[in-house]
Design goal:
about 90 residues; mainly alpha
């Protein structure tokens, strides 16, 4: 009877070891879950960036207001009859 108890104890210890530390064990599972959560976070951030860029592209395609704004800001262009005023930073 004592031999059966020792054998069962050894079996339980081996199974617990495999559960916690072996390949595809609990610790690997936790690492994978953390990795998936991190990737989902990065994906969500990238999707927000893509949505902003798509909105900007749509705005540029749909009208002249966005193109005019970019031309005024980046190139300093003005319409005929307007006066360009540059405010210098101190």
């Amino acid at each position: 009877m004592r031999l059966v108890q020792i054998a069962l104890l050894i079996l339980i210890v081996l199974l617990q070891y495999r559960f916690w530390f072996a390949e595809n064990g609990y610790l690997d599972h936790r690492r994978l879950l953390d990795s998936v959560a991190e990737e989902q976070s990065r994906l969500a951030a990238q999707q927000r960036i893509n949505a902003n860029l798509q909105a900007r592209v749509d705005d540029l395609k749909s009208g002249n207001d966005a193109i005019e704004e970019l031309a005024r800001q980046n190139l300093g262009l003005i319409k005929p009859g307007e006066t360009f005023v540059l405010i210098a930073d101190e």
